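The material for today's practical consists of a large collection of protein records. There is nothing in a record beyond a sequence line and a structure line. As an example, a complete record with its sequence and its structure tokens follows:
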Amino acid sequence: MRNELALAYVLVVVGGTYALTMGQTRYHRDGFVGRAGRWLMDVPHYVVVAVVAAACCSRARGEAAAERAKVALFDERHPLMMWCYIAMTGGAVCLYYYSVFPAFLSNPEVAWWHVITAPLATLWALQAFILACYSDPGTLPKHALSDPAHPNAPSRPPQPAPAVNGSGRPLIQYPFDHAMYTPNNPCSTCNVFKPARSKHCKLCDRCVRKFDHHCGWLDNDVGEDNYVHFLHFLLSHLVLCGYGAWTCARHVEYFVRKNRLFSASFSTSDGQRMKATYTTIFQFVLQTHTVLCGELLFMGCVTVMMTAFLGYHLYLCSFNMTTNETFKLSDLQEANAWYSGLVQDRELQIKQLRESGDAATEVEPIPYLAPPPVPESTRALWRYNGGWFENFRQVLFPYQPKPKGGGTAGGKQSKPAKTKLKKR
């Protein structure tokens, strides 16, 4: 019973983590994973309401406390998810080095260099995590809305975004597409004109260039300047968990082969003997090596998740697209589908009025909507797609390359960005 509970715990943790992180994406938000993610996000609300209502004998106080807790958890920046990540990953790594790794090294078939590669993989993942947590995502500087010496004076006009980074290298100036990004669009909080592909993060209270998403596991935004560190984080943890899962599987294989379990017979609870099957061998290994099997399942599931995350972000990089822009594109497509249906309804209504001879009846005007975006089926025509080589260069080196002749931001004017608008 204890083994089944341990496996159920691992499955619930991995499944809940996936539902919380990927449930609101356009691939899952209308399915079971999306509903499960929304239910998990509502669990703290119901728990707080029940506890406070029982303690204070007032449902109104419970609702108020639950609303404050919801705002603190989901609308304010806090390191809770980061500490949960540290607890889960750190606990799994410590348990691995305490119980699994010594047993793996006891295998005479294991090469000596595993004593070095395992700690190196752990240190690599730790370094990538720290770098992704504390690197700047590309924050736009804030400007005061009014003069501190004259607080009653009119607010200052928004300031333009800087054209160079902290090292003086010219930043990539993306063109506006006039659909998702429009020029002269100021941020009312930072008092700065937002460049194309930027976004204000309400959790971190800052505008970020080429905003991708706010990562709760890192307690940091992912943007133009630290996107490469985020990919580094995913890759290092994929290697770490994949390496750990491989060593666990290798030790299970060695244990089965050493004890010749496929040719052995097992006794049941009623004293009967039965031949070895994959099910009985699995149950026997689970009973004798519970920690090993738990580590194998946990690291295997995390490896699959990291592979999916890294593959998805590399796919976005190949088209020079961000996670934020996939949501924007999906919303615009839904809005334009609604707009097309509205136009068809108005045309049908006008046709019916003309056929009935009542052409004098006024028809409600069609509201204005931004130009439709590129269809999702033609990602190759994405406005900011400059080819896979240029797209990955912008991720690895997020600044405009120096023009020929050694010009800099303070000297010769830099060349315009290679990314151009595509005609639809």
In short: The radius of gyration is 28 Å. The mean pLDDT is 78. The chain is about 55% helix and 5% strand. The longest strand covers residues 199-201.
